[in-house]
Amino acid sequence: MEERNLRQILQDVQQGTINLDDAVEQLKTLPYEEVEGFARLDHHRSIRTGFPEVVLGQGKTVEQIDRIVEKLAQRSDRVLVTRILPEAAEIVQAHHPEMVYHPAARALVLDRTSPENRPEGVMVLTAGTADIPVAEEAALTAELMGNRVQRIFDVGVAGLHRLLDRLPDVRKARVVVVVAGMDGALPSVVGGLVSAPVIAVPTSVGYGASFGGLAALLTMLNSCATGVAVVNIDNGFGAGYLAGLINLQAVNNKSL
Amino acid sequence: MEERNLRQILQDVQQGTINLDDAVEQLKTLPYEEVEGFARLDHHRSIRTGFPEVVLGQGKTVEQIDRIVEKLAQRSDRVLVTRILPEAAEIVQAHHPEMVYHPAARALVLDRTSPENRPEGVMVLTAGTADIPVAEEAALTAELMGNRVQRIFDVGVAGLHRLLDRLPDVRKARVVVVVAGMDGALPSVVGGLVSAPVIAVPTSVGYGASFGGLAALLTMLNSCATGVAVVNIDNGFGAGYLAGLINLQAVNNKSL
Amino acid sequence: MEERNLRQILQDVQQGTINLDDAVEQLKTLPYEEVEGFARLDHHRSIRTGFPEVVLGQGKTVEQIDRIVEKLAQRSDRVLVTRILPEAAEIVQAHHPEMVYHPAARALVLDRTSPENRPEGVMVLTAGTADIPVAEEAALTAELMGNRVQRIFDVGVAGLHRLLDRLPDVRKARVVVVVAGMDGALPSVVGGLVSAPVIAVPTSVGYGASFGGLAALLTMLNSCATGVAVVNIDNGFGAGYLAGLINLQAVNNKSL
Amino acid sequence: MEERNLRQILQDVQQGTINLDDAVEQLKTLPYEEVEGFARLDHHRSIRTGFPEVVLGQGKTVEQIDRIVEKLAQRSDRVLVTRILPEAAEIVQAHHPEMVYHPAARALVLDRTSPENRPEGVMVLTAGTADIPVAEEAALTAELMGNRVQRIFDVGVAGLHRLLDRLPDVRKARVVVVVAGMDGALPSVVGGLVSAPVIAVPTSVGYGASFGGLAALLTMLNSCATGVAVVNIDNGFGAGYLAGLINLQAVNNKSL
Amino acid sequence: MEERNLRQILQDVQQGTINLDDAVEQLKTLPYEEVEGFARLDHHRSIRTGFPEVVLGQGKTVEQIDRIVEKLAQRSDRVLVTRILPEAAEIVQAHHPEMVYHPAARALVLDRTSPENRPEGVMVLTAGTADIPVAEEAALTAELMGNRVQRIFDVGVAGLHRLLDRLPDVRKARVVVVVAGMDGALPSVVGGLVSAPVIAVPTSVGYGASFGGLAALLTMLNSCATGVAVVNIDNGFGAGYLAGLINLQAVNNKSL
Amino acid sequence: MEERNLRQILQDVQQGTINLDDAVEQLKTLPYEEVEGFARLDHHRSIRTGFPEVVLGQGKTVEQIDRIVEKLAQRSDRVLVTRILPEAAEIVQAHHPEMVYHPAARALVLDRTSPENRPEGVMVLTAGTADIPVAEEAALTAELMGNRVQRIFDVGVAGLHRLLDRLPDVRKARVVVVVAGMDGALPSVVGGLVSAPVIAVPTSVGYGASFGGLAALLTMLNSCATGVAVVNIDNGFGAGYLAGLINLQAVNNKSL
Amino acid sequence: MEERNLRQILQDVQQGTINLDDAVEQLKTLPYEEVEGFARLDHHRSIRTGFPEVVLGQGKTVEQIDRIVEKLAQRSDRVLVTRILPEAAEIVQAHHPEMVYHPAARALVLDRTSPENRPEGVMVLTAGTADIPVAEEAALTAELMGNRVQRIFDVGVAGLHRLLDRLPDVRKARVVVVVAGMDGALPSVVGGLVSAPVIAVPTSVGYGASFGGLAALLTMLNSCATGVAVVNIDNGFGAGYLAGLINLQAVNNKSL
Amino acid sequence: MEERNLRQILQDVQQGTINLDDAVEQLKTLPYEEVEGFARLDHHRSIRTGFPEVVLGQGKTVEQIDRIVEKLAQRSDRVLVTRILPEAAEIVQAHHPEMVYHPAARALVLDRTSPENRPEGVMVLTAGTADIPVAEEAALTAELMGNRVQRIFDVGVAGLHRLLDRLPDVRKARVVVVVAGMDGALPSVVGGLVSAPVIAVPTSVGYGASFGGLAALLTMLNSCATGVAVVNIDNGFGAGYLAGLINLQAVNNKSL
Description:
Chain A has 256 residues and is α/β, with parallel strands linked by helices. Chain A has helices at residues 3-14, 20-28, 43-49, 62-75, 86-95, 132-144, 160-165, 167-172, 186-193, 214-221, 236-252, and strands at 33-35, 39-41, 55-56, 78-82, 100-102, 107-111, 122-126, 149-152, 175-180, 198-202, 228-230. In chain A, strand 10 (198-202), helix 10 and strand 11 (228-230) form a beta-alpha-beta unit. The longest helix of chain A has 17 residues, at 236-252. Chain A starts with a helix and ends with a helix. The mean pLDDT of chain A is 87.
């Protein structure tokens, strides 16, 4: 809450246009909503960022997810449940038939907005075929935020010409999400070839000394290329969200 | 090289307006320059990104740095040498008196451009006083790219009101660099309070179970806040570069 | 055994008010009880601390748990079995119908005492919904020790206003248990806002670089806030026990 | 800031007993002080907790420490600078002759209060001789907070009788700080022998597979004893602070 | 093969008492036996050490175990299969009805020798009930080698009196195997109380920061007590073998 | 693409023997093939190396594997699918009856070439029986590349004579693949006994502090023997490929 | 203290042959001695084990070491200070001219006993030349305990014949200490060749992925050979002590 | 020693052409030489491999290095001392003026052979300038073995065109050593572009999450490219040796 709002409320109090209890309430209460003790929905975030709080399905019971979606769907046109298993999604869908389940991304999506007129600018690349689920989570997220997303899959560095051939397209993007497991080398190569920000997503794809994605994560953190930042292993959502944000900010020419 | 350039060169060959050797040369050569066998300067990057290849001082001899700066200073108005010790900087400065050394950031800077009219939008925060050197490296980098940078230091989460008091300023930024060692918790809090992208920089500040910055790095990678990405431990340059890029892209409303 | 007890026994021997064998026995035997070779019950602890040895269910067979509970229930009004699966709990309950199973906390509880008149002072917070099971284990433990426990769930730092709104309540506590997975940042923020001791509990909630709770653990160990100590990952019992102890000590104004 | 304060200010505004600008200022400003851009002093914490913000010397320049001490010494009777080297302490002492340097603890202390009438209740143990510096940091901290501290050093588990002999004293404490490197086993043994809370401090004392204190840290986190919590490796300050807090709370019989 | 054997064979060749092919064979062949390409049985070890090669069940198919046991049972009176699941053991037992399966230790044992007259001297302790399976593997191994083994279980350091009460027995042993998970502190305490060698066995019992036994392993490696050595996590067999060896050597007063 | 090819195409353009569009196409297109968006087949590699891109089965759906094999089998006589489970292999075999599944190696192989006249020179050793699956993957790979492979299994260093007895055979090889889990010591010993390159393959065979093969991996990387290089844990394919390459190069006396 | 001693004291009390205060003292006091608050000397251990408490020099000030040696030298004929730097040793030697400093082992030794008639049986091997300091610490320790020690250095597995040539000697030992850094493979090979217990000592010799001895440590813990146990990295003292104990026990045919 | 040699010696004994003691000696002695107890020189290796045992300077005293070089220089024309500091090298050179010190590679070399007529085929690449020392160690090693080595430095993946431009040269090599720190991505890219074996060398160049080369090491072990194997961090010698071996084997068309 910025100073001018504060001053306005105080002026209202001073001028008697608002009573004391209401003023206390306005200053005290923040716009969130409690769901039966186990969750607090952050409508505030939605107001501020133009995007609702996403529900991380992992670690929640189906009942909990269901109740949270219930609340969110009443106030928002766009809801995203990530890391939700098919069986759980099916149960939630029974109450919300308008939601769509994307099995590869393990994502359940409510989107009442129109996909038309979304600006281009977000590119999602994968090194291999097995990285696609994480990439799809990223792409779905950015799309739901209002971006048009281009996907190019299986262009890992061990067959460099596959990437180089698509370079003109990649270079057009305002932000590039690069998803890779195993050696995690693709973001370094892409980062050296484009001038846009690169959001690198290590995946747990691999075996042995990949240590569940640790190898790819370290590779990306140590990238020699400039303009590369990294999110958590398998965190397609985080990468898609950040990429969507960067693209929309550039499109909308955000003023200070 | 995109298809239309290729087509143009081939048309020139077809029409005889360029001879064969020149065409081969154009297709074969890439615009970099070799410095006595130990380094290859990437002017290509400068042309493409509007920013020269930065010199990572660490791991290079003073002589090597000196020779590389020599070459770069001939072609570029802006050169940044990072992680260079005062003694080495002094030697290089003897040949390049116009360069300025920033001891806190361990950075040597050549900047023949005017600092006026640089757009605002980049905010750099630190959790503690000891994080300032890394933050300064980030700020210097973004400034050298052509941004105006606002710094707010020592606003760690253990004294939350210090951050909340500056929140209006922080919320105005187009991109926020958050530098923190020890528990590395600041980016999560900032990420929940702003809607701009947050570039989190873990530092090696701390002791014991901070394990040289590993604790802060893991905290940031696992941030519950959205819109947060992470760079390497102590990588102020990388964060400043990415933040500068995001800000400039938004300012310039980059078209595809 | 303190010196005065020793002296008393010796005086009894000297004065012939106790025979030799009994004296030897008193000095030699410690008040524990063996359960068929696989466990030794520590009634001594119960006498000393006013709380029975808790049974860690994990790693024990159902038969072993059953036999241990059998012995404990004969001598104590309060028994806590932690980390016990529903199937195992059901078998034990068949023999001890007065026991109650708490599925979220995976805890089986015998409590013949009255919950009335328990002093307030213990607060249990969680960062997210998925941290609730560990928090419940902590709360149940402190309650069984004779504390009244207040729970506030899902107040993680990425939506800071959720916590700030409940701050007056949190500040009233004599000790605060803070349960958080993923980035584990909540204890640092709470530690900076309250003056009571904070017991931080990292959870294994998260994925990727959370490495089973390691990230949250390191964050908490490196907390910049004062008055914070940490227990093992997912160790709700340990945190609840320590918090209960601190609260009861303050309530009872323990003399030296 | 709690609701009743808020309500009071608003009533003052309503009743015209405070003008608008002052009200804004009171609501906006938080009681900290900025030191030339590199540090923010948290007098608020001092007011709330009765103890000033401690200065972590490590990572700060002597000049920075000196300026911060300057500010703190004007408002507080008790200042603690931790992890400060003798040379730096000497420079600061030149401006603050009343400060005392404790070389073993690497601590610089200003204490204008009287050490008399401080309540007993804090016990500090070490496993070995090399753990003493960390233990002294803990003891000094608790003393500066207003506790009387008893020290028993070199009672590691490999010579158990050394501990058992002092057990009556140890059992009298309201809280026990246990400092141990190498195998870090002492807190488990102490935790099983006393009913008071145990704050375990792993130290970096050891070699080889102690991995800078990691071994002792893990031992303590996995302690089988109840009532044990852990702070960072070598964090004597943190342990002393928490122990002091617990003891004072019990002494003062803190009401809710 | 020692020099005198070599010299003897050569003398036999010189004197013609052995023909050339036989000599080559004697020098070339080592007494092992191949089992259909997938295993090589080391009867040599049996001859040298008086104990047959043990079969590590883990990682082998039931068929492979069965064939190996087949071969070993023809030449040896004592065969030990470790880490074999009940289903696999059942199949092997069908062909070798004289073998006994010990479910706690997951061990399948053939022992045609008499358990009488085995010398005492090996003591096996556990910290908790959940460590018993590993301890049983150790005890069975030492028994099969010809030792009498005494077991004392559940005497962890958090209830020190349980151990102290059994100290006279423990001190009689020639070698003590100490099995502990979680904090792994028991070997340090035992090592300080006895003068016999202590073989410490970390177990994977625990959760969270026990990291599958790593915490206990590090504790034991860093033990402050003298006379302690460590084997792999859960390696009851290795500890039992070494303890058995040490005891038999002392009993037999091995000459050089 | 080397300069002379480039020059040839340009000459063709100059001389009009090729039209512009075809030239653009030749320069632009690289010989790979896209499979419905999820994979890009690298026939280029096959042309260059004489061996087709291998399909890593892990992380791909059965449908994806099936489609990729479909494409590859049309252009290549030799296809290798690694890390494919029996159920998946069965489905693919239904469409490609000529493929053979090797259960131990989890490999599905298409080989229309003749196994005759393949040169010897590749030796594959294992330390234990449980390492055989990885060794078989290595051997199959080298065979499919056109090598004859000799296997010697279960010759670990704890029974050194088993290896020494087969030393003459091992010394004849041009390259030795050494597969070992647990302590991973075999490559060091073999590397000291042979003069050929040794490709060391750590396996995840073991338990406890083997940490999924990490112990064996580190052992091999730190080998004191010369001529040893290491591949990923359980990466039989990688080792077999490299060994096959080295052997074929030596056989074919590759000219520069 | 065993039961019969306890009974004897009580009988003395009963019969009045000892007064009450003396009995209390005997039961209460344990035979250690405090050195000015920073150390507790364990003469008890000396009485029990026939060997004095060794002084770990690392982490102690020269003054502390000096005072401890002062006390120990008054009561014991044999004192060992380990990990003491030459400068510190020189200072201590000034007060104790009879002490001898062994620079390779960094050990300061007082030995007033005769080295004659010490039994053979302890063998110390090293893999390389750089491992000798740790091996010397082990050998010195065992010698000071009263053993004769044979040393064979630089017999690492990469040149196996160096070990095999000395095998007859190695096989004669009652216990073998094997010291190795880098790949740490020597204990596995030795363990397979001898039937005596093997005490493996990993050293920090190496670079890169040796991670300060971690690689060698893990190798040894995962040894496939039987009869091998491991001590901490660079812990020559611990290995020498254990080896000396095992040998003396076998020599003395310890009765139960 | 192979069977035919054994048979020959036995025939000589049988026929009396060799006396018994000489035969024993031949069978017993292996051709190494002991240097005053601290090292065993392996001339056997030299005979077998055509290359002398290299001296690892690290961890040895100057005196030890000097004595070892003394012995080696008498029997071999080529000696390589690695990881030797300039000061130590100077002392050794005083006794061996014909030796040459290479400061970048920290290598001291004796080479009395002619560098002419050495076959080409070994290529050494580095990702950055700071990787050159390790690359030089590799190149020197391969050269000393009798190879001609081509070096191309500073062609890291962040500026891909630098590598692509030199691709024709790189593709001509029989074996490629790729040296890279930080993200360690270069070997994956090179491995995908060439058909020759790639020996990847991670370096400790980097900071933060490079963890002393661990990041680059893991990247390389997880390389998606085929034909890549890895050596220890900074192990230029090991890579150069293996590359030299592979090249010479291919040149010499080694027969079985």
